[in-house]
Amino acid sequence: MMAALFFKIKTAKILKSICHTLYARDYQMQLFQRSAYCGEVNESFLGKEIFLSGWVRNRRDHGGLIFIDLGDRTGTMQLVFNPDIDQKSLDLAHKLRHEFVISVRGKVINRSPETINEKLSTGKYELQVDNLSIVNKANPLPYQLEEAKNVDEELKLRYRYIDLRREEMQSILKLRHKVAFTAREYLDSQGFYEIETPILSKSTPEGARDFLVPSRLSPGTFYALPQSPQIYKQLLMGSGVDKYFQIVKCFRDEDLRANRQPEFTQIDIEMSFIQESDIQNICEGILSKIFDKVLKQPLDLPFPRITYDEAFSKFGTDAPDTRFSLEIKKATNLFKETELKFLRSIIDKDGEVGMIHVKEKEFTRSELDNLVDKAIKKFEAKGLLYVRFKEDGTPDSPVSKFLPEDFLKQVREIIPTLSTKDTLFFVAGKYKESWGVLAKLRLLLGKNLNLIDKNKFKFLWVTDFPLFEYNEDEKRWDSVHHPFTQPEKDWENLELKDVKSRAYDLVCNGQEIGGGSIRIHDSEMQSKIFDLLGISQKEAEEKFGFLLEAQQLGFPPHGGFAFGQDRFLMILSGSDSIRDVIAFPKTQSGTCPLMKTPSKVDDKQLKELQIKSTYVPEEE
């Protein structure tokens, strides 16, 4: 009896405590109601009472009135605190500082004509506050948001959650969401299944170093984080899935730069029973949908196609920026009989001379000297030769005495539109090396001469890549894309350097934003490719035995593509760095100043994994 009574009393106390908690929670909720977002306020809100919540971006004390710029992810709204409306809120507003989190209630009114801010979507209105709650205070910030562009990147990454509050960064996060969501919508409409593949995977040779994860349950063994879902999506084709996609994280342990991160995101696609054009059409459909729905501008379809050989011949790269011309011309024949020793020696060793023609630009001597200096020191050119012309057509160059008087006439056989107001730049050397230098020079000239329209998006398919490239350091052949790429028809009758692949890259504004290929679906062909790449039968069986076996158990012809989502977003947003479009990126050295990673782990964790670190820090 006493036990039952005790239970009832105890239950009553618990219920009373729960009710009190719920009441307190409800009371706290009243402190930060929100009926609209700051950037949504427009004419339809005039005269209405609304609740706003957000961060104090700015505070201006005008004697009897206080003005606050309140911000959230949608934009900024001006608040006005007036003693005639609510003295208590005005008194509290005196305590507000940058990045305090507040909630307000008030009536939307028109600003006076002379105070309208045309730069803001809400610039015609303000909220006349009659109730203010300080939800959370903020200590002095490590830097002010409006000064972010002048702040060291390391500091901004250390306080990334603050940097992300900026309107510019919020718009990038919104763009990222819209792009991913639109891609999903389109692919769903085309019959694709979104399927997740494992993150803990197998270490396979795919071109970059793997990130390894030790296994506690199987000591001495390791998982690898996937460089891409390549093999899994091929196996899904063997599973009869037919159309797969995934917005997936990939990991590569490689040297970083402005458009590269150790972990990145791909929009990954694979299809069965298709040709190159089928995949290219799907990719163009995704982009067309994104541009139409997200950017509100149409794309011209289909995108132009150019072979790898033609792209390299004209632009010195397989990812050309076609927003401007300045195409490279082969000019070796102009110097066949030259007395210039350095050119003579290059040509005699089967080298080539490439030329860039700049129309109607009279460079100053200092401009020319600066270009020569950059070509040698920055682009690692052996030299840069320039030629201008006098009014009578005779060459004007540091090597004029070695050039024939009719040099203008000879060049016009290559460039019929050449005039005496134009300038020519020449680079000589091995074909790949010299054209690579000219590609960098072309981009530099495009920027310096303002030839690049930054508001344009120029897409281009690059096709017919070489299947193999020779690795001079290791004296063996490597895959240009990956070892699962299908070679062209009758490839076995060609020298390896001449074999083309059924691979294709998509380029936008001089950046490769994705690539793909028709895959090998026959185990016999796959084994031959492994053999040519120096992968022994034993190694192939150990690393790819499951794939070779699957190819013998009814494997369909298939192919795919992967968009580099981060790099694509970098182009869409006009950012200079891929770090701007990733919520929590790594630095150029692969570290995270916010989380302080990579970090050490304690000896207990290492012992559980049966791992011992042999690293000895260098003495300072």
Could you outline the blueprint of secondary structure elements for this entry?
Elements lengths: L1 H30 L17 E14 L2 E8 L2 E7 L5 H7 L7 E10 L14 E12 L16 H6 L1 H4 L3 H23 L3 E2 L16 E4 L7 E4 L4 H9 L4 E9 L11 E10 L3 H18 L11 E3 H8 L12 E3 L10 H8 L3 E7 L6 H13 L7 E5 L5 E2 L10 H6 L10 E7 L1 H18 L10 E5 L4 E4 L4 E4 L23 E6 L2 E8 L4 H10 L4 H14 L7 E7 H9 L29 H6 L12
Parallel strand pairs: 3-5, 6-9, 11-17
Antiparallel strand pairs: 1-2, 1-4, 2-3, 4-5, 7-8, 9-10, 10-22, 12-13, 13-16, 14-15, 14-16, 17-20, 18-19, 20-21, 21-22
CATH superfamily of the largest domain: Bira Bifunctional Protein, Domain 2
In DSSP terms (H or I, runs of 4 or more residues), the helix count works out at 16
Task: State the low-pLDDT regions, or none.
Answer: 18-30
Strands ordered across the widest β-sheet: 6-9-10-22-21-20-17-11
> How many strands, which pairing sense, and closed or not: the largest β-sheet?
8 strands, mixed
Provide a compact summary of the structure.
This protein is α+β, with helices and mostly antiparallel strands and 620 residues long. Helices cover 30% and strands 23% of the residues.
Give an account of the 3D structure.
There is one protein chain. The chain is α+β, with helices and mostly antiparallel strands. It has three domains: 38-136, Beta Barrel (OB fold (Dihydrolipoamide Acetyltransferase, E2P)), CATH 2.40.50; 170-306 and 458-582, BirA Bifunctional Protein, domain 2 (2-Layer Sandwich), CATH 3.30.930; 324-448, GAD-like domain (Gyrase A, domain 2, 2-Layer Sandwich). 30% of the residues lie in helices and 23% in strands. The protein contains 16 helices and 22 strands. It has helices spanning 2-31, 87-93, 153-158, 160-163, 167-189, 230-238, 276-293, 308-315, 341-348, 365-377, 407-412, 431-448, 523-532, 537-550, 565-573, 603-608, and strands at 49-62, 65-72, 75-81, 101-110, 125-136, 193-194, 211-214, 222-225, 243-251, 263-272, 305-307, 328-330, 352-358, 385-389, 395-396, 423-429, 459-463, 468-471, 476-479, 503-508, 511-518, 558-564. The strands form five sheets. Strands 6-9-10-22-21-20-17-11 form an eight-stranded mixed β-sheet, sandwiched between helices. A hairpin with a 5-residue loop joins β14 and β15 (395-396). α5 packs across α7, α5 (167-189) crosses α15 (565-573) and α13 (523-532) runs antiparallel to α14. It is globular. The protein starts with a helix and ends in a 12-residue tail after the last helix.
